[in-house]
């Protein structure tokens, strides 16, 4: 199965753990060294409804890779990839928020 079609078929509002090179979105592959980088990695989806996306679109625009010493964040925007490195010793806290009432009109 074509990797674009496979990625499209799996697309949704969830985060995926990456286990091998084919799980990594193609636009990020050249920036990831599996032997050195992949202790743990996840890809984060774009904020879009499934009905509005098509195979071949950028469906995952962020990749978070954890190795033994640091966190590497890859971000795609307008066809360009940027990367950030954060040493674990620099992390003070992690916050996660969710708005379950998005666009609810009463």
Provide structural commentary:
The longest helix has 8 residues, at 3-10. The termini are far apart. Helices cover 11% and strands 29% of the residues. It has one domain (3-90). The model has no long low-confidence stretch (mean pLDDT 83). With 106 residues, it is mainly beta. The chain has helices at residues 3-10, 34-37; strands spanning 16-17, 40-45, 60-66, 70-77, 80-87. It has two helices and five strands, in the order αβαββββ. A five-stranded antiparallel sheet has the order 1-2-3-4-5, with no helix packed on it.
Helix and strand topology:
Layout (H helix, E strand, L loop, with lengths): L2 H8 L5 E2 L16 H4 L2 E6 L14 E7 L3 E8 L2 E8 L19
Antiparallel strand pairs: 1-2, 2-3, 3-4, 4-5
Output the keywords:
5-stranded antiparallel β-sheet; 106 residues; mainly beta; single chain
* SS field, number of helical segments: 2
> What is the approximate shape?
globular
Number of strands: 5
Low-confidence stretches: none
Strand order of the largest sheet: 1-2-3-4-5
Give the topology string: H per helix, E per strand. Answer: HEHEEEE
Q: What percent of the residues sit in helical stretches (DSSP H or I)?
A: 10-25%
Would you tell me the structural class of the helices and strands?
Answer: mainly beta
- What do the pLDDT scores average to? 83
Please state roughly what percent of the residues sit in beta strands, choosing from under 5%, 5-15%, 15-25%, 25-35%, 35-45% or over 45%. 25-35%
How widely separated are the two ends?
44 Å
Number of domains: 1
Rg for CA atoms: 15 Å
- Biggest pleated-sheet summary: 5 strands, antiparallel
